[in-house]
Amino acid sequence: MIRIKAGVPRSGRPRTNPRPRRRALALALPTAWGAVAVGYKFGCPLAEQNGLGARIVTSAVFFAVGTGLILHVRRALLRELRQVRKVAGAAQSVLLRPLPPRLAGLNIAAAQLSADRGASIGGDLYEAVATEHGVRVVMGDVRGHGLSAIGTAAAVLGSFREAAHDEPELGRVLGRLDRALARHLRERARAEHPSSGQEPDSPVAEEFVTVLLLEITGDGELRAINCGHPWPYLLSGARVEPLSAADPLPPLGPFPLPTDLTAVDCGRLRPDESLVLYTDGAEDARDMRGRFFSLQEALEKAVRDQPVSPQAVLRTVFTALLHHTNGRPTDDIALLVLRNDCNTRHFSAPPGARGADNSGSAARARPAPTHPQPTTHR
Questions:
Q1: Helix 18-43 / helix 52-95 crossing angle, nearest 10 deg
Q2: Which of 45, 208, 282, 318 has its CB 3.0 to 4.6 Å from that of 251, i.e. a possible disulfide?
Q3: Strand, coil or helix: what is 246?
Q4: Is the pLDDT of residue 226 over 90?
């Protein structure tokens, strides 16, 4: 048996830590500029003279030193900013994973518009997965912004990604999300108030999440459970109308769920029909005069050109939103478009679905795993 000491590669040469070298190089340039300034001040006879020419030269030397230091600091800050953006991009890919362009006969596109300039993640959440129970979709909106909202969104999404496959009933999926949210808020309360627990005026006590759960079965039947979230729009030909007019349940968080969590029957998603799921930031967006954005009118404009693709719907809506808000939305906005592009009555069998054949036509019906369409962030 060959034993290899930790920190020593097989070549026999010990590994060196590059951090001290980087720190030394980072301090070398400011030290050199400082040495030039000090050397000129105390070692150059011209610096001791009071004539106009000597003053001009002295000013030029110190201006060059100051400019060099500023450029060095700027370069270091830009390098750190690029690193922070890489980390934010990695967090984004974990929190809101890029959705595949096709999922069990559905054409999918999703995008998010952040209210914070330069931000790529926020409190909006969405996901779509193909399960043995059908395609299940979640769209939600966490109250507030910042790191706390991101943590809450991650807790809800993580629970959905497991429960969507495990639970046969949509109501039980919602129950799992509610328990995961409650557990996350308790942990936050203990972290924020480790000595006395959650304070009465703690922001955790006021936090809630609006959630829309949607299930599309293999024959196109639609079922949904809505907890304080806007109902999606159904695009059928040139018609744009809300999917349902049923009263939603209260949002998750402040109130316990009712005992009856039966999903609402929303009809059927027929071929060439689309669903547009969105967060309330889309309809709450205002222009300079305080007028609300009409999402339905923007969707009616998007369906004038046939056939309608989810990508074209997103482009039309976000272009109209940015024009309406003058490029400055005050709230995060997320849109997810699902279009039934299956010409047959039944959707393709989702990967790993119970009873699906892994060969022949069933294997050909699986959605292609390559070239996923990334989530667009504007």
A1: 160
A2: 208
A3: coil
A4: yes
User: What is the model's pTM?
Assistant: 0.67
275: pLDDT strictly greater than 90: yes
pLDDT digits (tens, 9 = 90+) for 174-199: 999 999 998 988 887 777 666 555 45
Q: What is the mean pLDDT of residues 16-32?
A: 59
Give helix 146-166 / helix 170-192 axis angle, nearest 10°. 150
Residue 339 has φ and ψ, to the nearest 5°, of -125, 135
Percent of the chain at pLDDT > 90 equals 29
CB of 270 closer than 8 Å to CB of 235: no
Judged against a pLDDT cut of 50, whether residue 356 lies above it is answered with no
Q: Is residue 165 a contact partner of residue 158, using CB atoms and an 8 Å limit?
A: no
Give tens-digit pLDDT for 148-169.
778 888 889 999 999 999 999 9
Give the whole-angstrom CA distance, residue 205 versus residue 307: 47
Of 375, 345, 368, 373, the closest CA to residue 130 belongs to 368
- CB count within 10 Å of CB 38 equals 11
CB 337: neighbour CB atoms within 10 A?
28
Q: Which amino acid is at 86?
A: K
Q: How far apart are CA 278 and CA 229, in angstroms?
A: 9
> What average pLDDT does range 369-374 have in this prediction?
37
Helices vs. strands in the chain: H and E counts, helices first: 7, 12
Residue with tokens 């699986």: 366
CA–CA gap between residue 303 and residue 241 (Å, rounded): 12
DSSP string, 181-217: HHHHHHHHHHHH-TTT---TT-GGGG--EEEEEEEE-
Integer Cα distance of 213 and 198 in angstroms:
30
255-267 b/e (C-beta count within 10 Å ≥ 16 → b) = eebeeebebbebe
pLDDT of the residue at 177: 93
